[in-house]
Write a structure and sequence with these properties.
Largest sheet: 3 strands, antiparallel
Shape: elongated
Mean pLDDT: 90
Strand order of the largest sheet: 1-3-2
Number of strands: 3
Length: 60
C-alpha cells in the first residue's frame, strides 16, 4: 500500500446516515473500476454528528 487518503465530509446532522450510505455505495462502485484502489473505510465521527470520515487505500 502506497497511500492512504483522508477525506472529511460535512453534512447536516440529521442527514449523516443517509449520506454515509450514499458515500459507501459510491466507493463500492469506484473500487470495482479502479485497479489502484485497495480498499476504503467510511465511518461517522464520534465527536461531530455532521461529519463523515472516508479513508481510501491506494497502491500500485
Amino acid at each position: 500500500m502506497q497511500f492512504i487518503k483522508y477525506n472529511k465530509v460535512l453534512v447536516k446532522p440529521d442527514k449523516r446516515d443517509d449520506r454515509t450510505k450514499a458515500i459507501l455505495a459510491f466507493f463500492k462502485l469506484v473500487q470495482t473500476k479502479d485497479a489502484q484502489m485497495r480498499g476504503f473505510i467510511v465511518m461517522g465521527s464520534l465527536e461531530n454528528l455532521s461529519e463523515t470520515i472516508v479513508l481510501t487505500f491506494l497502491g500500485i
